[in-house]
Design goal:
Helix content: 40-55%
Radius of gyration: 18 Å
Number of strands: 4
Strand content: 15-25%
Order of helices and strands: HHEEHHHEEH
Shape: elongated
Largest sheet: 2 strands, antiparallel
Distance between the termini: 28 Å
Number of helices: 6
Mean pLDDT: 91
Length: 142
């Protein structure tokens, strides 16, 4: 199973933010959309990614004044990305290894979507359940 199949089920709608937007603008968007990360895009390829964790760490280190800073100051850059042909298990291993929870999907320099660890675990569990159901049906028909 590839990331393309996850995006097919999830959809490829993606929220992004500009590097000159403030951290407060990003926090507002995260809350409104109930999402955990925003890719930072400045009219071209992905420049970085900002997650809830990035905000928390910056608030801890620099205090509330960081909310007025531009995204480019706190984003993780370069962003760790995958392409839509990446296998789900490979993506899960990468997320575990790098201790990240969101992966932008980039094909040909263009963002095609974003997957979270929750999306991948859900997809994997659905596949396991479908395989188990197929096995039960096979055993019952024998």
């Amino acid at each position: 199973m590839t990331i393309a199949s996850v995006l097919q089920g999830k959809g490829s709608a993606i929220e992004t933010i500009a590097g000159d937007a403030t951290v407060f603008d990003a926090v507002r968007r995260l809350g409104e959309k109930r999402i955990g990360a925003l890719p930072v895009v400045d009219g071209g390829p992905i420049a970085g990614i900002m997650s809830e964790r990035d905000v928390i760490y910056c608030l801890r280190s620099h205090g509330p004044e960081v909310l007025e800073c531009p995204m480019s100051r706190i984003m993780s850059s370069p962003a760790v990305t995958i392409d839509s042909a990446t296998e789900v298990l490979v993506a899960l291993a990468l997320m575990t290894q790098r201790r990240i929870r969101h992966l932008p999907v980039v094909d040909g320099g263009e963002i095609r979507g974003i997957v979270s660890i929750g999306d991948l675990v859900k997809h994997r569990m659905e596949r396991i359940e479908a395989e188990a159901e197929a096995m039960r049906d096979y055993i019952q028909s024998a």
